[in-house]
Amino acid sequence: MALNVNGTTIETDEDGFLKNPEDWNEDVARALEREHEKAGNTPLDDTARGLVRFYRQYYKERLVHPTMNDVLETLKKPGESHGDTEKYKTRLYQMFPHGPVQALCRLAGLPNPGVENES
Fold this sequence. Notes:
Elements: E1 2-5, E2 8-11, H1 26-38, H2 46-62, H3 68-75, H4 82-95, H5 100-107
Antiparallel strand pairs: 1-2
């Protein structure tokens, strides 16, 4: 599979993840977003785009994918209860019903987290 971005072919795997994460840029991000929407997903809003930036930054700093718990801990404000965390999780699944971590990694141009530990 591949994306055509400004006349350049960007290779993706069969699940839509970039084969070369270094290919990601704002134009590629928009192309990935269009593919996300063509697959019948809800269009991204500013919150979702912020999560994509969070995923990119987290991966850049730690060289591992953020987990659902990492995202929830980042969203959680001091003093919030477990119930508040569950509300955030519910919201993430409303935005990305087929799996927030997978979708956000794909949109952020990161490697597929499902194959992270494969050799």
